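INTERNAL AUDIT FORM
Audit reference: QA-55
Scope: verify that the stored structure record matches its stored sequence.
Auditor: D.O.
Record contents follow.
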Amino acid sequence: MAADIAAKGTLAAVAVGGAAGALLRYWLVSVVPTKSGGFPLGTLLVNSAGCLLIGALMVAVAELRNVHTLVRPFLGVGVLGGFTTFSTYAEEVRALLTPDTLVLALAYLLTTVLCALAAVAAGMRLARWAL
């Protein structure tokens, strides 16, 4: 019974957080629109920011005491999972895989991976410094 209630609470936290993260992403990406065949800067910025925050959150959750059990599901899986959009990233790379934009597709593919990894590392370092 208690495990069922906890599971429902976790599911609700992820769902509410995911909706909030997706709405925030939608708003931010609409501020930086991408022209057809252009570099998807909005998605790159959103995914990089999300990775920075995920790195910081994971350090904070792992190293702080008395963190509520729903913080990680709500913020990590929900908000930041809904905020980042690697499915859109994959679709944007696929759309750029044409003879005219092949170099741009490869640049976007590599730039996103490198920025995401650097952002997670930076978020972890910042969180450790702040703690």
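Auditor finding: record pair retrieved intact. The chain has a mean pLDDT of 92.
Action required: none
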